[in-house]
């Protein structure tokens, strides 16, 4: 029997936090000023603290001893602060936490959790009270720190407080809630290079697979689009069809790594392991009937194309919000694989919105594309999500965690 007087005793510390759902994701939200001083700056102390909060690294891949739920959609952290820019209300920093490794990827955004940033900012005093109506809709101007972009969320307010409940239904989320339209402004990279290679479609050389037709796009989040049929898929697959296939997962990771090199995100495929969040890899196909993961029948007549996307090495249960931005942008540009899939293989058909089928159902997204001095430009990509506070209070971690 263990002598309890001899066991180590490190007191736990409490950190104010809010557990929120945003779109089809959920994560732990913090105000920057509430973090311990050592974690208020980027670095190892912050990473170690957030890893412990989420319950990573966990070799069992369950995150039992933390707030994560062992999926890429739920292993997330957000740090918010009042914006230093007069053109924005709140600065939004996102961390994608690895489940089994001591690693947080700060290279991209979470589009789904973007829908929860506005509600959190309003409820926590990060938006000027003078801008808040007693009843109505407030545009929360968000500066996305990871990708240095502006996001505008239209948050409904009732009796001076954020409206969370409502009738808006989002496939991949069980219960309805209030609708929050989210606009991702100028979603390409800082130099406007939507296509890092300069091509709408590339021949991507992947060992063992030969050249694959690919659209490599940087809008919302860097994404590698491949035709589903070229990999032996239909685009109607659900999670188990891919996530239970170790060879398929290895194939997709190889494609992702070579796509990252071709996009200039890394210089060698060996670096891909340290950049798990970006780029994403997705397969596209023409519309077809299928049964979603909830048992809902999705009709080919109700969608324009099929898309399945992987996040952190696994097929996503619905669709990442940032990847939905990439889908909207690619669909709006004639000749991309996404545009061709939405138009039955026909080129020269312009789109400003598409409805795509994903494993949990369907989603409509919109974007307007135009060329400026020979380069493609997306002014904004828009989609509707919802958000809700699940729990608020404090999280606890051992005091020697960081």
Helical content class: 10-25%
Taking all Cα atoms into account, the compactness measure Rg is 21 Å
Series of secondary-structure elements, N-terminal to C-terminal:
EEHEEEHEEEEEEEHHEEEEEHHEEEE
Largest sheet: 19 strands, mixed
How would you characterize the overall build of this protein?
This protein is α+β, with helices and mostly antiparallel strands and 402 residues long. It is built from six helices and 21 strands. The chain has helices at 44-54, 111-123, 239-243, 246-262, 321-331, 337-342; strands at 12-22, 25-31, 76-82, 90-97, 104-105, 136-144, 149-158, 161-162, 180-185, 202-206, 210-219, 221-227, 280-285, 290-291, 297-298, 305-311, 314-315, 353-358, 361-372, 375-385, 387-398. It is globular. The two termini are 31 Å apart.
Draw up the topology in text.
Elements: E1 12-22, E2 25-31, H1 44-54, E3 76-82, E4 90-97, E5 104-105, H2 111-123, E6 136-144, E7 149-158, E8 161-162, E9 180-185, E10 202-206, E11 210-219, E12 221-227, H3 239-243, H4 246-262, E13 280-285, E14 290-291, E15 297-298, E16 305-311, E17 314-315, H5 321-331, H6 337-342, E18 353-358, E19 361-372, E20 375-385, E21 387-398
Parallel strand pairs: 2-3, 4-6, 12-13, 16-18
Antiparallel strand pairs: 1-2, 1-21, 3-4, 4-5, 6-7, 7-8, 7-9, 9-20, 10-11, 11-12, 13-16, 14-15, 16-17, 18-19, 19-20
